[in-house]
Amino acid sequence: MTADTQATDTSDKPDYDSPWKEALERFFPEFLALLFPAIYDQIDWSVAPEFLDKELQQIGGNSPRGRRYADKLVRVRAKDGSDLYVLIHVEVQGDAESDFSARMFLYQTRLRDRYTIDVVSLAVLTDTSPSFRPKSFRHARWGCGIVFRFPMVKLLDYAEPERWAELEASDNVFALVVMAQIRAKVTDDAETLKRWKFRLMRLMYERGYERVLIEELFRIIDWMVRLPEKLEAEFRQELYELEEQYHMPYVTTVEQAGIEKGKILGMELGVQQGMELGVQQGEARTILRLLDQKFGPEVVQMHRERIEQAELEQLDTWLGRILSADSPETIFH
């Protein structure tokens, strides 16, 4: 295969951490409903979940860390009438790791010790090793023993035809995130991966999703499913044609505007430079939207000019920081 048909040949390696963090925070009820429905049914959703990322970082600061993709700590209220709050710790694990179960137990005990309330630990395994299926931590010596069990979902199982068909038929928007992650992990041929990426986008338009939802899902999927430059350009053109067909120029509006602006500024910019300008404007728009959601409109106005004038490389850096940032200063330092 040539460099253009090898998914792993792209120098810009997939960033699975950022999209999972955003997906869990934006679609947490949908995530539980799809992958952990029994737990979803136990939660009082009239009370908004509270995300405790900063607290989780403090808890795990000195723990042994393997390569993982994302974790979340969420406080929810049980609907059993007890008015009881429960902590849900979600660990998204991207690689087979021998001490994963021990780490899950460590988080469980530290969280219970700090908050003195029930803690539910959930594992989402996104790796491609069929045999890696940790569900418990066990330790025993001299008659003293510990057994800690936790619910686990292996995304690789959903790649089987029957389970995949369930995902494609699901009206749960998080199914699209799961499908994107699976295809990004198991597809070696980039041409095939491009077709899957386009298929996921087409599903959104066929279902008539609102503009904001399509943009949010696209950002997550685009983060997960990365293509070589040439194929990415082809995908964007196919997506533009799809949006024209549905009269919904949501995702590609900014990119196309950038291309047109590049042409107006002078043909010497060339098509490639015009496309880069569109991508740059798209990333700036994404950062402004995330800033507004996380820190409010005043912060957006404070940093708007700086963001809109930044180079693409700088925008990439800021975008990678924004989801885990505790303050605007930690993004732009």
Notes on the structure:
This is DUF4351 domain-containing protein. The protein is an alpha/beta fold. It has 2 domains: 130 residues, GMP Synthetase, Chain A, domain 3; 144 residues, no CATH class. It is 55% helix and 12% strand. It contains 15 helices and 7 strands. The strands form 2 sheets. The protein has a 5-stranded mixed β-sheet with strand order 1-2-3-4-7. Helix 7 runs antiparallel to helix 8, helix 8 runs parallel beside helix 10 and helix 12 runs antiparallel to helix 13. The longest helix has 26 residues. It is globular. It starts with 16 loop residues before the first helix and ends with a helix. The N terminus is likely disordered.
Biggest sheet record? 5 strands, mixed
Domain module count: 2
Mean pLDDT rating: 82
Distance between the termini: 42 Å
Task: Name the poorly predicted regions.
Answer: 1-13, 62-68, 256-272
Strand order of the largest sheet: 1-2-3-4-7
Helical segment count: 15
Please report which band the strand proportion falls in: under 5%, 5-15%, 15-25%, 25-35%, 35-45% or over 45%.
5-15%
Portion in helices: 40-55%
The helix/strand class is alpha/beta
Total count of strands: 7
**Cα-based radius of gyration, to the nearest Å:** 21 Å
Which of globular, elongated, flat, extended, rod-shaped describes the shape? globular
- What are the secondary-structure elements, in order, as H or E? HHHEHEEHEEEEHHHHHHHHHH
